[in-house]
Amino acid sequence: MWRHRAFMVGTGLSGLMAGAALLSLFWTPHSPTQIVVRARFKPPSWEHWLGTDQFGRDILSMLMAGAQTSILVGLIAVSLGLGLGVALGLLAAARRGWIEEAVMRLNDLTFAFPVVLLAILITAGWGPGISNAILALAIINVPIFARLSRGAALTIWAREFVLAARAAGKGPVRITAEHVLPNIANVIVVQATISFAIAILAEAALSYLGVGSQPPDPSWGRMLAESQNHLFRSPVLALWPGMAIVLSVLGLNLMGDGLRDLLDPRLGRRGRA
């Protein structure tokens, strides 16, 4: 693990994001929601390390608090999608026939709605907010994990040790819990890491469009949206949240690629080259 450069770089970037979010629960240089009109568009200084925005809010404090929003949305959305999607995928693999067909056609129907369109439909009925953004992202993640777990589970169901377990009298539920799920866990973990990165990017996009996190809660996407009217006066207003999104997504993707190599013996040597 220590010699896998991509995994270590990704873990470091992801740890930096998680550390900033954890630290912001207890301390930030300034209040991320405090408006100080006389401090508008301040350049970086000892008082404001990354400067201030058009309302006089400290940018570093907003970035740290915005990491909370990104991690919260990613964790809940991916956890909900993983739980329901893996359950449906394992059910489809264990119960072939009309159950498998119904699950997969439902997945195809869900794939027909892009996440942004689905979020707009949900917020049109229930109003904008972070909870509705989480719901939209969770719904999109369900078919991803369902397809992945079904495909991996079907491979395990055809293995000799599963046939031996069936001959010994074990039922589908016991075989799934004892043999199938442990053997596909590594694939699910890698996909969860990648889906987490996608959820952070999608949350930023939804907040940018105004259907995600709402004021005064800090959000990297809304920071980008608010900075676009001041690009010529203060370009760094868009630089900092943009860099936070890029580094967070890059870190999670590198960590996911590293986990894939480390958990698959056939790929274990490639990342160390």
Topology:
Layout: H1 5-24, H2 59-94, H3 98-111, H4 115-126, H5 130-157, H6 160-167, H7 172-209, H8 220-227, H9 236-263
Helix content: over 70%
Rg calc: 22 Å
Distance between the termini: 13 Å
What is the CATH topology descriptor? Answer: MetI-like fold
Q: With helices defined by DSSP (H or I, 4 residues minimum), what is the helix count?
A: 9
Contiguous uncertain segments of 5+ residues? none
Order of helices and strands: HHHHHHHHH
Using the 3D structure, state the CATH architecture.
Answer: Orthogonal Bundle
Q: Average pLDDT across residues?
A: 88
Major β-sheet profile? none
Query: What would you call the structural class?
Result: mainly alpha
Strand tally is: 0
CATH superfamily grouping: MetI-like
CATH top level?
Answer: Mainly Alpha
Count of separate structural domains:
1
How would the global form be characterised? elongated
Which strand-content bin applies to the residues? under 5%
Structural notes for this entry:
By secondary structure, this protein is mainly alpha-helical. It contains 9 helices and no strands. It has helices at about 5-25, 60-95, 100-110, 115-125, 130-155, 160-165, 170-210, 220-225, 235-265. α1 (about 5-25) packs across α9, α2 (about 60-95) packs parallel to α5 (about 130-155) and α3 (about 100-110) runs antiparallel to α5 (about 130-155). The longest helix has about 40 residues, at about 170-210. The protein starts with a helix and ends in a 10-residue tail after the last helix. The model has no long low-confidence stretch (mean pLDDT about 90).
